[in-house]
Design brief:
- The longest helix is centred in the N-terminal third of the chain and has 29 residues.
- Helix content is 36%, strand content 20%.
- Strands 16-17-18-19-20-21-22-23-24-25-26-27-28-29-32 form a 15-stranded mixed beta sheet, sandwiched between helices. The chain has a nine-stranded parallel beta sheet with strand order 33-34-35-36-37-39-41-42-44. The protein has a six-stranded parallel beta sheet with strand order 43-45-46-47-49-51.
- By secondary structure, it is of the alpha/beta class.
- The chain starts with 11 loop residues before the first strand and ends with a helix.
- The protein is extended.
- The chain contains 34 helices and 51 strands.
């Protein structure tokens, strides 16, 4: 059998030794009845000679599996699983006496007492283990217990057989000084207890095996008893009449309410005659018999107390005039007669599920002969507790649970608001007229621990936030079924978000304990919308009473959802929709015309009348192929997290000729990318459709930034052609040849995107030209990058610039080559008079500056010159003159130079001369720029003097320097004075100090004095770098930097710096007096390694995520175990706190 099956690695079972070493794997087999895989015990014995038994990684013995009748499979087998089993070898001399003992061995095999005892001892120890295990799992699931008891019977019989066989051979048996008689006595004692354990397991599962108990529509505990013993004739079935009597399902948790008896008892109700009794007994006979036997014998555990029938406590609080005198007088005889009847009708047999499911419990009511308006719950009340468990209790047991004072306040409020509280069904109907009334209602619900199914009529025009807060507040009171009347379509976002972000599913059901929400008269009068987990249903009219439970409906919807993976095309959808509609009708949901399925990566709306998918939404085009292939989608929505359209998306566009609306939601600002690609493929559709683009960046919140109405064209020519846009012929991605065509008919009904951040192609330039024709002056920010533009594209951009009044222009200076004249002409069309921000970036800044004369930009506030990161650009004197004139003609408040240097260093003096430091608020210089600027003594002196003069003349805020590199080796004595002025009149966020040995240039005192002028109060980043960090830290002893967030100590290689204890104290003080979140040691060690403990103790746990150590520092730190332990403890503390915060 094993050889006939493929050796799929996933079907091989792994084994290992007790010390974890791998052993050979064995092929598993497939059980045709259950679909589960297993390994034959005989195969295991053959491969692992001397095996005793198998264990899991938790040292739990692996048991043989059982069949549907609760008996061991033959031949014996072990369940297959992914994890390896541990093979335990038998320690006995005769290794064939193992689990799965082999019968038929010769008596002469045993030569001495030492040979005999180990085999018997092994079996005896196995029996003891299994009996003790059996006693410990009486509260486990029935199947688990049944497997254990079947294994126990197997080993018990094998041990007895072995003892008897040795008796016949007249061999002496001795196990742990126990002879044959003692062994059999102990086995007999255990065997006598097994029925009791079995009984407890049966009735524990009968009472506690309810799954999602909230949906139980009636008490799951009831007795079925003969109506009258006097007329009962065993030979005449017509005299065998029965009545059903509900029991009070009293769960006495923690022994509360001792003033009244807390046991289960008969409800004070005459009971119900049965309709279709033969059918009822066929469906419920085994359960009826189990309850009857439990009532007769009695049962108790931590929560239930069911006294034996002979005590007659079952009749507590029952009035003979109500329940009937025959029941009060003859209940023992009635129970005995019923047990005999059902034993003959339905013999007791093993079942995996001993309790009643929700659906079977609900269906009990359909067999009761109840007149309209009569009590169908046996005078019991439904209680739903905080665990969502349901109990049906009598009035006497329910009253103490409900905190009567709080309940009366709730009833009073509900009556005053046109409603009613049905305590028996645990339902509330109420009308609310304002947010204040809703808040008051919720406060009453919170006043006690039991919950209700709630129906609310909203008598005011509610907003989306009103509904969301109301539903979430009601859910916190433990409510799981909510009915709302008064909801309108206004609460839903329009367009794309209507499909992507459904309020009731995405924000309420998926985020609370509410299971079902019904919207009455929605979206139109007399219609109903039902929301369940993963689904919503739209009905043409409100249904009558449902014949099945909500859970049954949800189960059927899940089957429909699962079947979609098997759907191949439109015809399959049609048959599947027909089947679903029929199923829903069987639940009483007549007129269901629409069903929505919500998946993690996609949603789809099905028209059940036409059997077609009509709307779909997806994350990153994650639809299953079955949805994309339906050819009936009219509305398609996609949210893209990256700049990517896959082939399936294009296929879906082509397949669904009836597409009318396409919504594309994206993160970022590349609107032209999506517009271009979708318009390029538009020619594949012969029908008009509307394209809506939404930007989902945090600051836009899904704002619609563009909407295009595109008219379809019935193409007679080849499908792969060129679209004409405003007379220009652009190839589509599918083009094979250039084909001319009439200009496309595209109407930009909405375009609220005022920015273009990314490079444009000729195609998107043409689209942008069309946009600005229909919406002139829409652009305020534009990135001019000509790298992808031909001369035709430059002409389009020229028109765009002419119509636009830009405020922000980013010029990416790529190579100009043959385009120089066109670019020069293009720049003349920029409306410089409106410009507020200009960025010159890229690798060819010098070439671009030479293309046009310095513009007059009186409103220019920000100028940034940003060279390419890997190539510091040299600006000529003529380029500096261009920048000088541009600065002089404007009123700059921000000036930035990054990755550029001046060919003539003295030109920095020219730049400083052009600045109006009374207006300038931010000066941002990169490292290369700053170091060159710092080396020009005249420029530094002029800058310091102008700052001082401006500070004396005006009461202006201090200028902000983004960074300052302090290298004393390059500063003269006069420059030091200028640096002091700069520090005095500027705010500084980033300071890098190059730590050369101060004694090398004899300025240690001036160094200390300069550091006194550093604006430490605004500093956020401090880096000390060089080969003399230890000496420089001593100069920071009295520094107070309350806003400091990052401290870097970067030594030089080879590592020879050792921070002294006094230096460590300075670092400790900085940690203690700042808001430090990052600490970095690179090529630095501590003179006393135990000082690491001091530093780690001062760190806040939030710092440790950014506590970075270079190799040498890390090696020293990890050698101090106390420091490592403290760091680990703090990291764990922070991780736990983060988890708690996330859960909140």
């Amino acid at each position: 059998m094993a050889s006939s099956e493929p050796t799929d690695p996933l079907l091989l079972h792994k084994f290992k030794t007790e010390d974890g070493s791998p052993l050979p794997s064995l092929q598993s087999h497939l059980c045709a009845e259950t679909g589960e895989r297993y390994i034959l015990w005989s195969d295991i014995q053959r491969v692992f000679n001397g095996i005793d038994h198998l264990e899991t990684e938790w040292k739990t013995r692996v048991l043989f599996t059982i069949n549907a009748d609760g008996e061991l499979h033959c031949p014996l087998r072990i369940r297959h699983r992914k994890e390896a089993y541990v093979v335990v070898i038998h320690r006995a001399k005769h290794k064939n006496q193992t689990q799965g003992f082999r019968h038929g061995q010769e008596d002469s095999q045993y030569q001495s007492l030492d040979d005999i005892s180990p085999s018997v001892k092994h079996l005896f120890d196995t029996c003891l283990y299994l009996y003790n295990h059996l006693e410990s799992i009486t509260d486990d699931e029935r199947e688990t217990f049944q497997q254990a008891i079947a294994n126990t019977r197997y080993y018990h019989s094998m041990l007895v057989e072995e003892i008897e066989r040795l008796d016949r051979a007249e061999d002496t048996i001795l196990v742990d000084e126990k002879g044959r008689g003692q062994l059999l006595k102990e086995l007999h004692n255990f065997q006598q207890k097994a029925p009791e354990w079995d009984y407890r397991n049966i009735y524990h599962n009968t009472l506690h095996s309810k799954i999602t108990q909230w949906d139980y529509a009636a008490s799951a505990l009831f007795l079925v008893l003969p109506c009258d013993l006097n007329s009962w004739d065993i030979t005449d079935p017509s005299t065998h009449q029965f009545r059903l009597h509900f029991l009070c399902d009293n769960w006495n948790e923690n022994g509360a309410h001792k003033d009244i008896p807390q046991h289960v008892h008969l409800s004070n109700h005459p009971g119900y005659s049965l309709k279709r009794p033969e059918e009822f007994f066929r469906n419920y006979g085994d359960y009826i018999l189990r309850v009857l036997q439990m009532i007769k014998q009695g049962y108790s555990d931590d929560y239930y107390d069911i006294p034996p029938l002979e005590t007659l406590k079952i009749l507590w609080n029952c009035d003979p005039n109500i329940i009937g005198s025959h029941l009060a007088m003859d209940i023992e005889s009635l129970v005995d007669r019923a047990i005999s009847y059902f034993l003959e009708l339905s013999p007791s047999k093993w079942r995996k599920e001993l309790g009643l499911s929700q659906s079977k419990c609900r269906l009990v009511k359909t067999y009761l002969d109840v007149q309209d308006g009569d009590d169908a719950e046996g005078s019991l009340c439904r209680l739903i507790d905080h665990r969502k468990d349901v109990y049906w209790k009598c009035q006497a047991h329910a009253k103490p649970e409900l905190r009567s004072e709080s309940l009366e306040h709730l009833k009073e409020f509900v009556r005053g608001h046109g409603g009613h509280v049905d305590m028996q069904q645990a339902t509330i109907r109420v009308e609310l007229g304002s947010i204040a009334e809703a808040d008051e209602f919720q406060a009453h619900l919170y006043s006690f621990e039991y919950s209700f199914d709630i129906s609310v009529k909203l008598n005011w025009k509610v907003t989306r936030s009103n509904v969301k807060n109301l539903c979430k507040s009601i859910a916190r009171a433990g409510v799981e079924v909510l009915e709302l009347d008064g909801i309108t379509l206004d609460i839903h976002p329009q367009g794309y978000d209507h499909y992507r972000n459904n309020l009731f599913y995405h924000e309420i059901i998926a985020d609370t304990d509410l299971r079902f929400i019904m919207l009455l008269n929605y979206p139109r009068p007399q219609e109903l919308c039902i929301h369940l987990y993963h689904y919503s249903l739209q009905l043409e009219k409100s249904p009558g009473p449902l014949s099945h439970s909500w859970t049954d409906i949800w189960d059927d919807l899940n089957k429909f959802g699962s079947s979609m993976s098997l759907i191949q095309g439109p015809s399959d959808w049609s048959s599947s929709a027909t089947e679903l509609k029929s199923t829903l009708q069987s639940h009483g949901l007549l007129g269901t015309y629409m069903a929505t399925l919500y998946k993690v990566e996609w949603n789809a709306i099905f028209n059940l009348n036409s059997g077609a998918v009509i709307e779909a939404y997806s994350l990153d085009t994650g639809w299953p192929k079955s949805v994309l292939s339906v050819e009936s989608i009219r509305t398609l929505g996609v949210h893209l997290s990256s700049l990517d359209f896959d082939q399936e998306f294009f296929d879906a566009m082509r397949a669904n000729a009836g597409l009318r609306d396409l919504y594309v939601s994206y993160y970022g600002h590349n609107i032209l990318y999506y517009t271009e690609h979708i318009v390029r493929m538009w020619h594949e559709s012969s029908s008009p459709f509307r394209l809506t683009l939404l930007d989902r960046m945090e600051d836009t919140r899904g704002r619609v930034v563009a909407q295009l109405a595109i008219r379809g064209i019935d193409w007679n020519g080849p499908r792969d052609i060129t679209i004409g846009l405003q007379g220009r012929h652009i190839k589509t991605p599918f083009s094979q040849e250039q084909v001319t065509h009439e200009p496309a008919d595209i109407v930009f009904t909405q375009w609220d995107c005022d920015h273009i951040f990314t490079p444009v192609s000729d195609y998107s330039a043409s689209i942008l030209d069309m946009v600005t024709r229909q919406h002139p002056s829409v652009l305020t920010l534009f990135t001019l990058d000509v790298s992808r533009l031909s001369l035709a594209g430059l002409n389009s951009i020229q028109e765009v610039l002419r119509r636009s009044y830009l405020e922000h222009l980013n010029i990416v200076s790529s190579a100009v080559h043959y385009k120089s004249k066109s670019i020069s002409h293009l720049l003349d069309f920029v409306q410089w008079s409106t410009l507020k921000s200009l960025v010159l970036s890229g690798s060819s800044i010098e070439a671009w500056i030479n293309l046009w004369l310095p513009p007059v930009a009186p409103r220019l506030l920000s100028l940034q010159i940003q060279g390419a990161e890997r190539n510091v650009q040299k600006l000529s004197h003529s380029s500096v003159l261009f920048i000088h004139r541009l600065i002089c003609s404007s009123s700059l408040v921000e000036l930035c130079f990054q990755n550029v240097q001046l060919l003539e260093k003295s030109d920095w003096d020219l730049i400083v001369e052009s600045m109006d430091v009374s207006l300038l608020q931010t000066l941002d210089l990169g490292e290369h720029d700053f170091m060159q600027f710092l080396s020009v003594s005249d420029a530094i002196t002029r800058f310091g003097s102008r700052l001082e003069a401006a500070a004396l003349d005006t009461d202006r805020p201090k200028m902000s320097l983004s960074s300052f590199i302090l290298d004393f080796a390059t500063l003269s004595q006069s420059s030091l004075e200028s640096v002091k002025k700069i520090f005095s009149y500027c705010c500084l966020e980033k300071l890098i100090v190059k730590c050369d040995d101060p004694t090398d240039h004899s300025i240690s005192d001036p160094v200390a004095r300069v550091l006194d002028f550093v604006p430490w109060s605004t500093l956020k980043y401090l880096c000390l770098t060089g080969d003399s960090i230890n000496q420089w830290i001593q100069l920071l002893t009295k520094v107070d930097a309350p806003r400091l967030k990052s401290l870097d100590l970067c030594g030089a290689q080879p590592v020879h710096q050792k921070l002294t204890h006094s230096s460590v104290l300075v670092v400790e003080r900085l940690i203690s007096t700042s808001v430090l979140t990052e600490l970095h040691f690179q090529d630095v060690q501590l003179q006393d390694p135990h000082d690491w403990v001091l530093l780690v103790e001062k760190m806040h746990p939030s710092m440790l995520g950014n506590f970075r150590l270079g190799r040498s520092s890390h090696e020293q730190f990890t050698s101090i175990q106390d420091a490592v332990d403290i760091e680990f403890s703090k990291r764990k503390q922070w991780w736990i706190k983060q988890r708690e915060d996330d859960s909140e």
